[in-house]
Amino acid sequence: MPVLLITGGAGFIGTNLVRRALRDSALTVVTLDLLTYAGRRDNLADVLGHPRHRFVHGDIADRALVDTLLREHRPDALLNLAAESHVDRSIDDATIFLRTNVLGTHALLDTARSYVASGAAPRGFRYLQVSTDEVFGSLGAEGRFSEASPFAPNSPYAASKAAADHLVRAWGHTHGLPVVTTHCSNNYGPYQFPEKLIPLMILNALEHRALPVYGDGRQVRDWLFVEDHCDALLSAALRGAPGETYALGGDSERTNLQLVQTLCDLLEGLAPAAGYTPPAGGYRALIKFVQDRPGHDRRYAIDASYAGRALGWRPRHSLDDGLRATVGWYLEHREWSQALSQGVYDRTRLGLGGAS
């Protein structure tokens, strides 16, 4: 029975990945998470007692702890999802992004290297680095990112992820560590922290608060439902070729303004049944254009055709279906959002350039 060690497993993508893995009766999961502001043990409440799951509170930079977990559980794959991920926060202060995304990855790579060199790792072990399309910078009106795209990160967050990706490649090339890297487009779905665009818009709308759209709202993103992303990550971790990179996208480009308008329209239909009254003029009347993010990338889009051929993967959810499911989840789980945000994040604007 393959064993997966998933770091960052109490965060947004990690929480969904742990659940997805446990739905496969052939997999056992060990979750490691530091439980920073965006990750909560309660995110995994329904699987904490699962017989094929163990949760460990700890830091990926704690080499002794990670070494113990590797030697005790002998995972077939280590999936690194532990990261600071919010661009606006990285603009205000990049320190924790460098500590976690760069130094944390470095420590994890060294520990994984020792695990493989000792002979304890099962044959076919892989280290999977979960990265982002933001390392490639910004696209013009045409074209899409692929595995061959050059790195050109524009935000402190993207730079920290690019640095980690370079370390992963170097540890594979120099030390022979069997590494695989994925670059995904914008994820959305259940359990996403409300600083991100989609949950922020949903929660603000339900409270009749302004829906802040940066700049002219014409920035384009390619949206990938988190469950589809998790399918790809499992395929890459268990069947990906060492040394390979896979670009993962939803083939669902929308401007930020179009996306917010779609969320407003979905809420018009779904919110009343959940007990919420739309504002006068409808939810679209809450949209407010605000000062743009410094250095805001204009367009991201992913060509995922290689991942489709190599991994046999393709997204199962359309953007319309995924957004409807996501809105429905937040309507049904308001207590989750309130508990997660209380005393941590009041949905005020971040990323206008504080200390660095």
**Helix/strand-derived class?**
alpha/beta
Strand residue percentage: 15-25%
Shape: globular
Low-confidence stretches: none
Query: What's the β-strand tally?
Result: 12
The strands making up the biggest β-sheet line up spatially as: 3-2-1-4-5-6-10
Tell me, rounded to a whole number, the average pLDDT: 95
- Main β-sheet: number of strands, strand sense, barrel status? 7 strands, parallel
CATH architecture of the domain at 3-189 and 226-251 and 299-317, by name, is 3-Layer(aba) Sandwich
Gyration radius, rounded: 20 Å
CATH topology category name of the domain at 3-189 and 226-251 and 299-317: Rossmann fold
First and last CA, distance: 46 Å
Tell me which oligomeric state these chains represent: single chain
CATH level 4 superfamily of the domain at 3-189 and 226-251 and 299-317:
NAD(P)-binding Rossmann-like Domain
H-E string: EHEEHEHHEHEEHEEHEEHEHHH
Number of helices: 11
